[in-house]
């Protein structure tokens, strides 16, 4: 190996100093400037002593040379000998290069500082804020719902950390959401998986953390890595809510995140809502109303006055809220038996317009006994025929959930162009499954299926295409089905799955019974859990096939139609059937967005006249 020379060592040292940034470069420029000034001063004293006239001291010549270096234009006003003018011209020329380099270095350094501030790299100083880690289309739903939830607060903030440009994030959010009211939006550029980037979010003072599942391949691995980074950080750990696309990764995510993390299985939640909506028209609208912060919301109350009261009596206890269940030390129970006694450790689960509107009733409920219909026995469940159009990653889960609902002997016809369709469907108890190859956007292919023979049609989003194109194909299928219904006079429920909330308005033209925007549902659920993580058990029970669920049932089974009644009378009629009434659906408004005739938590004393076709929305056993 050759010996390192002095020149190589000097050059190595110089390179290291130059790489330290703008300050080091300015330091070297100052050294060069000093050398130039001293050299020019020396030549001036040697070649032109006493010039300019009256100047003889070294300090005065140094000052004149410095002014020529900083202001090269001064050479134009110089007078003296040729030697003096030549020396000052050389000093001015060197100063011109030095000043140009200084301006360039300062401009570049300032630009770097501005770019750093623009990217959002300063540590935020908020407290009690909600932190969102990652970026996906769900961020617009989550931030929008948090803004609604915080509308009555004087100070609130939502902080977002994502590997995107800070200004781009802020512009996208304001374009989608508009006015944010009193809520401050703080965006920071960084990787949520990096501890030093997480430190920017002041997590120790945060109210809650939401981890988004990103778009692209293997998003759950990214979520798990973020959970690991959160668990390893020092300091206080706020509650964390995270969404996973596959239930197979739940165990690994729980291990990574620890006890402070609540996980949402996106595929399972969307699948449950699709299945339930296919069997109960309007259910998706009810669930969306419960999940968002616009209308009826779910709250937990601990009223001392209800301790020792039975659940059946508590159904009439609130003037401005509907009781739907109890949160007990052993877990959440929706619509428990009417004789269940409320204990001191129990919380009452209610639906109300706002937390501040939950008030106990002053007197006895106004119940019209003459308007209550006599309970009638329900017919035994009969086998059903369901048509499933298209196939995607959650389709198998949908089929298995549907198998748990239908009566034995039911038939499921799967029509899709995906070669995966129907794979892995072993062990079904109640369903007989048939699979057909079909282009679901083709009118003749759909007609060959005999759609009129089915009671329910489920249209899934085909994940072989990007979400935008998949929604376009879904719209084409819905239009074909709608036209076939009109032309042939057929009647069957249609439930459709879509990705983009913006396509809902287009899909309304097809008059599908229910449209499930899967990404929006998960975004709404994450926003609810970010505000109150204890609601996770409540929504879990609502979407579960076991226990009580939401059912729209004919109003004529509860009260006399054409007769003016109060909602207290409806609640009493449902109570006598072991059910909890939470609202109703007017048939006349079933095609009118955004609520499609559904009214949740109406006033207990408001007069209602039900017509044939209207429904009462209740929590009841399957």
UniProtKB/TrEMBL annotation:
InterPro entries: CASTOR/POLLUX/SYM8-like, CASTOR/POLLUX/SYM8_dom, RCK_C, RCK_C_sf, RCK_N
Record's bilayer topology term: Multi-pass membrane protein
Domain RCK N-terminal: 127-263
Main location: membrane
Subcellular location: Endomembrane system
Keyword DNA repair found: no
Transmembrane annotation, as ranges: 21-48, 82-106
Keyword Oxidoreductase assigned: no
Domain RCK C-terminal: residue ranges: 283-366
Gene3D superfamilies tied to this protein: NAD(P)-binding Rossmann-like Domain, Regulator of K+ conductance, C-terminal domain
SUPFAM superfamilies: TrkA C-terminal domain-like
Annotated keywords: Ion transport, Membrane, Transmembrane, Transmembrane helix, Transport
Family under the similarity heading: Belongs to the castor/pollux (TC 1.A.1.23) family.
Name this polypeptide is given: Potassium transporter TrkA
Upper taxonomic lineage: Bacteria, Bacillati, Actinomycetota, Actinomycetes, Streptosporangiales
């Amino acid at each position: 190996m050759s010996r390192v020379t002095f020149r190589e060592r000097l050059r190595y040292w110089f390179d290291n100093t130059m790489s330290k940034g703008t300050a080091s470069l300015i330091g070297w420029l100052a050294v060069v400037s000093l050398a130039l000034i001293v050299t020019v001063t020396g030549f001036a004293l040697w070649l032109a002593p006493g010039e300019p006239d009256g100047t003889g001291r070294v300090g005065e010549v140094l000052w004149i040379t410095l002014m020529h270096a900083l202001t090269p234009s001064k050479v134009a006003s110089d007078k003296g000998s040729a030697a003096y003018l030549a020396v000052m011209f050389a000093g001015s020329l060197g100063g011109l290069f030095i000043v140009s380099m200084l301006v360039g270095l300062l401009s570049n350094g300032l630009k770097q500082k501005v770019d750093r501030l623009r990217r959002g790299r300063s540590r935020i100083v908020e407290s009690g804020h909600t932190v969102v880690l990652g970026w996906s289309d769900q961020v617009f739903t989550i931030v929008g719902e948090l803004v609604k939830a915080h509308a009555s607060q004087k100070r609130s903030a939502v902080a977002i950390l994502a590997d995107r440009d800070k200004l781009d994030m802020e512009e996208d959010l304001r374009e989608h959401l508009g006015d944010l009211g009193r809520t401050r939006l703080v965006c920071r550029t960084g990787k949520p998986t990096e501890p030093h980037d997480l430190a920017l979010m002041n997590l120790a003072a945060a109210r809650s953390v939401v981890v988004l599942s990103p778009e692209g391949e293997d998003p759950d691995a990214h979520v798990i890595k973020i959970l690991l980074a959160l668990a390893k950080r020092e300091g206080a750990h706020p509650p964390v809510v995270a969404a996973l696309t596959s239930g197979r990764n739940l165990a690994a995510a729980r291990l990574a995140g620890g006890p402070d993390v609540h996980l949402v299985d996106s595929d399972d939640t969307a699948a449950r809502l699709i299945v339930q909506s296919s069997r109960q028209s309007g259910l998706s609208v009810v669930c969306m109303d419960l999940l968002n912060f616009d209308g009826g919301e779910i709250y937990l109350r601990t009223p001392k006055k209800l301790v020792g009261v039975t659940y059946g009596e508590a159904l009439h206890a609130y003037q401005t809220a509907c009781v739907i269940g109890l949160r007990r030390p052993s877990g959440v129970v929706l619509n428990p038996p009417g004789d269940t006694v409320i204990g001191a450790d129990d919380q009452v689960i209610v639906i109300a317009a706002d937390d501040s509107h939950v008030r106990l009733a002053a007197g006895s409920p106004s119940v019209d006994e003459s308007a209550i219909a006599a309970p009638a026995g329900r017919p035994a469940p009969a086998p059903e025929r369901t048509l499933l159009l298209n196939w995607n990653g959650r389709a198998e889960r949908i089929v298995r959930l549907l198998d748990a609902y239908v009566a034995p002997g039911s038939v499921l016809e799967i029509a899709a162009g995906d070669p995966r369709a129907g794979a892995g469907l072993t062990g079904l108890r109640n369903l007989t499954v048939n699979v057909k190859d079909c282009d679901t956007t083709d009118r003749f292919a759909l007609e060959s299926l005999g759609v009129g023979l089915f009671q329910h049609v489920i249209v899934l989003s085909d994940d072989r295409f990007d979400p935008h194109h998949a929604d376009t194909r879904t719209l084409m299928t819905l239009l074909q089905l709608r036209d076939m219904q009109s032309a042939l006079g057929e009647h069957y429920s249609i439930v459709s799955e879509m990705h983009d909330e913006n396509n809902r308005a287009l899909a309304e033209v097809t008059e599908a019974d229910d449209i499930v925007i899967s990404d929006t549902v998960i975004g709404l659920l994450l926003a609810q859990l970010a505000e109150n993580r204890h609601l996770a058990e409540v929504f879990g029970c609502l979407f579960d096939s076991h226990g009580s669920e939401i059912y729209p049932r004919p109003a004529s089974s509860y009260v006399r139609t054409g007769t003016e009644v109060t909602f207290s009378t409806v609640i009493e009629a449902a109570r006598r059937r072991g059910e909890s009434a939470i609202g109703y659906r007017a048939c006349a408004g079933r095609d009118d967005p955004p609520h499609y005739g559904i009214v949740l938590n109406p006033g207990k004393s408001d007069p209602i006249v039900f017509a044939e076709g209207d429904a009462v929305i209740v929590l009841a056993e399957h």
